[in-house]
Fold this protein.
Amino acid sequence: MKIRYLMVSLALAAVSGLASAAPLAVSEEERQLLGIQVEAVTLLENAATGSITMRVGFSPDAEWVIKTPFSGVLHRALVQQGDRVKAGDPLVVIRSPEFVALQRDYLKAGAELRMAEAASKRDQRLGEAGSISDRRRQETRYQYDSARADFAGLEGQLAMAGFDAAALKKLAAEAVISPDLVLTAPADAVVLDRQALLGTQLDGSEPLVSLGEPDKLVLNGVLSRSAAERLREGMRIHSEASACGAVIVFVSSVIDPLSQTVTIRAVPDSSENLSPGQLMEWQMLSEDRVLLVPSAAVVRLNDEDVVYVAVAGGFEARSVTVRSTSGGAWIVLDGLQDGDRIATRGTAALKGMSLGMGGGDA
């Protein structure tokens, strides 16, 4: 029986431990009996050369913490966790005596500025006519400059409170002072948290609302030092789960002393199908065309990595230089060419034949 003869040959090979440099004679019938499958290897573009687990997070410029610039009481809360807001949407209302005082001082400073400006212009004309001394003219000019500086400072404080040019113009024209300061969203965002409760007394340092811009995401992960050495900024990664690509923008040069890992950061092409906090598996893609073979195709023979290349009438054991992709495949760096046909299953039987005498007809 041919199959019995082959199995006996493999057993003898395991005992002898000898290697044969000549091609192994294996017929088509023997291939089928031993379960040997043959595939052609091809150069692949953007081949997966490894994997890395990345956590989706917000970009450093996409997270906001909203605080009140004045002390007061949290009067109203207009959003809750998970809400989506647009830039300019109201978030919370603070009832603040300090805000009232600032608006009052702003209106008074505006009136004083107008008076100082009029006095300065009057003395300028009188000085040019020789009716007043230069000292008098300089004094009124100084008073005008001081009033303008005070007014600009108060205007800046109101701008920090969210007053734009239109709001400032309305306050100056109508002189209507409100005790309620409305804090608004600085960008289109998602409400991550709303910390303070209604009626909370605020001193100006408490975070009230946390926001994140969902269209500005990054990926953060860690790799072993040896794996990170093969990465560089600009390389691409891909996620099958989200059908999304990303580009590596940062490979840390600092190694964590405890875990001996390196931090990696990437920016996704799109935020679609990605959620902050999500853990995802990403495939690192080759920049050049590479030869990939299944891990089962590579065997260890006489302290060398070997693949079995199909030749006329059998197989040739060929030494190769390979690198693991940690994804069930090996990158062939040397020893194979595009189009070579290799055994991808049944390599254990071929290894046994390499070490012994089996494989031919009785």
About this structure: The chain has three domains: 2-47+290-354, 50-61+215-285, 63-212. The CA atoms of residues 67 and 205 lie 7 Å apart. DSSP finds seven helices and 24 strands in the chain.
